[in-house]
């Protein structure tokens, strides 16, 4: 027998976007139901990027002390761009007066889930959305954790269900329809037990390709190196992994330690052709994907949510559809700025497999332009820390 649940907003996907949206709606007095096919444990342990824009941290402040971004996370006032064996600091504080916080996404998720459950949110794990029926009262057709049919009937449905979104087909007419670009490389990511090799992140370009030296804590570090997208994570011994990393960060010595986690991250740029149809809208990875360089993914999802929460408030509290009508256009402006930045930082730092000597020298010229020009440094810093929300 099918169980039917009624709410004002049905949110498909309990990632950062879906959870934060339920919080912002709750603050406006709007009830929602959030479902996710994954278990709580799976959501809280999936390893993703670690950089929060200043505006993201400020929005997370609205969940109160549950947000540990400022207490457990670390503020970073700059990054290092490294090429030809030399490091060049991009000073965020001096260029744009803003900062970022190093605080991993799964920790943000732990904070958001704890805050939502404490607030009495109807949040259901292990519930799989199978489709969405659009209309005056749209419905999410789903199955609960036991496989029983479940329908959520709402005034509005939001797809925050990630890059393999079920909601996308309802909005764009196809599960894949969108602007799309692939890249001929990927990142090999590791987590290791070692002290930090650097206080700030190092984005390093070398003739062997790119590497990123990031951190997680005083004892755990996160690093990535450019690899072929087909690379098998088991293909390298630990010693080989350290060689691959070290040769891409010339001029600095990495502090090594046991590697306890490995993954390969594919690079894709994607923006859905449409972000809203009738009473269904997309946010976050369901709407767009960026390559990881610059860590814009979650930040962009949160920027979408900020706009959509205001639009749903106007619709559901005042019957005013104007913000919702404007949502695709307003959200797209930031989405395409972030698409550009993520693509640009990727192309600035990675070495394409078919790069010629000319390409390589041109790239070094571009890197030098960025670090030696006030405007170059300011563009990087502004985009990296996140464009102010009201801009
Ligand atoms: C991390 C990931 C990124 O993509 C990035 O640009 C910076 C940091 C990270 O996982 O720490």
Q: What does this protein structure show overall?
A:
With 391 residues, the protein is of the alpha/beta class. It contains eleven helices and 21 strands. It has an eight-stranded mixed sheet with strand order 7-6-15-16-17-14-18-21, with helices on both faces. It has a six-stranded mixed sheet with strand order 9-3-2-13-20-19. It has a four-stranded mixed sheet with strand order 1-12-11-10, with no helix packed on it. Helix 1 links the parallel strand 2 and strand 3. The longest helix has 28 residues, at 322-349. The structure holds 3,4-dihydroxybenzoic acid. 3,4-dihydroxybenzoic acid binds at residues 49-51, 201, 212, 214, 222, 292-295.
Q: Tell me, what's the shape?
A: globular
Proportion of beta-strand residues: 25-35%
The residue ranges in which pLDDT falls below 50 over 5 or more consecutive positions are: none
Tally of strands: 21
Helix content: 25-40%
Task: Summarize model confidence as the mean pLDDT.
Answer: 97
**What is the SS-derived class?**
alpha/beta
The termini sit apart by 50 Å
The number of helices is: 11
């Amino acid at each position: 027998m099918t169980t039917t649940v009624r709410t004002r907003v049905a949110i498909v996907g309990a990632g950062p976007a879906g959870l934060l949206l339920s919080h912002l709606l709750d603050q406006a007095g709007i009830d929602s139901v959030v479902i996710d096919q994954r278990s709580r444990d799976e959501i809280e342990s999936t390893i993703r990027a670690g950089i929060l824009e200043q505006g993201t941290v400020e929005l997370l402040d609205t969940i109160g002390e549950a947000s540990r971004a400022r207490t457990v996370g670390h503020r970073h006032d700059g990054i290092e761009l490294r090429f030809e064996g030399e490091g060049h600091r991009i000073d965020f504080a001096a260029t744009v007066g803003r900062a970022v916080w190093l605080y991993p996404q799964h920790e943000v998720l732990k904070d958001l889930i704890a805050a939502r459950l404490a607030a009495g949110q109807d949040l259901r794990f292990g519930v799989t959305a199978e489709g969405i029926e659009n209309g005056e009262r749209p419905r999410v057709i789903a199955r609960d954790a036991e496989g029983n049919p479940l329908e959520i009937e709402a005034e509005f449905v939001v797809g925050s269900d990630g890059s393999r979104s079920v909601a996308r087909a309802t909005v764009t007419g196809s599960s894949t329809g969108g602007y799309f670009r692939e890249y001929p490389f990927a990142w090999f990511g590791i987590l290791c037990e070692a002290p930090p090799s650097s206080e700030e992140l190092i984005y390093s370009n070398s003739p062997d390709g790119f590497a990123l030296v990031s951190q997680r804590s005083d004892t755990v570090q996160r690093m990535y190196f450019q690899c072929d997208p087909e690379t098998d994570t088991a293909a390298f011994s630990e010693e080989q992994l350290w060689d691959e990393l070290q040769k891409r960060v010339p001029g600095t010595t990495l502090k090594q330690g046991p590697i306890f986690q490995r993954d390969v991250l594919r690079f894709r740029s994607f923006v859905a052709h449409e972000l809203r149809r009738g009473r269904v809208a997309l946010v976050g990875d369901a709407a767009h994907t960026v390559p990881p360089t610059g860590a814009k993914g979650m930040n962009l999802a949160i920027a979408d949510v900020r706009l959509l929460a205001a639009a749903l408030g106007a619709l559901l509290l005042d019957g005013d559809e104007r913000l919702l009508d404007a949502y695709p256009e307003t959200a797209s402006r930031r989405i395409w700025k972030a698409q550009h930045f993520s693509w640009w930082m990727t192309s600035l730092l990675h070495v394409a497999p078919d790069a010629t000597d000319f390409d390589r020298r041109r790239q070094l010229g571009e890197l030098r332009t960025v670090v030696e020009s006030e405007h170059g440094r300011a563009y990087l810093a502004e985009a990296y820390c996140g464009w102010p929300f009201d801009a």
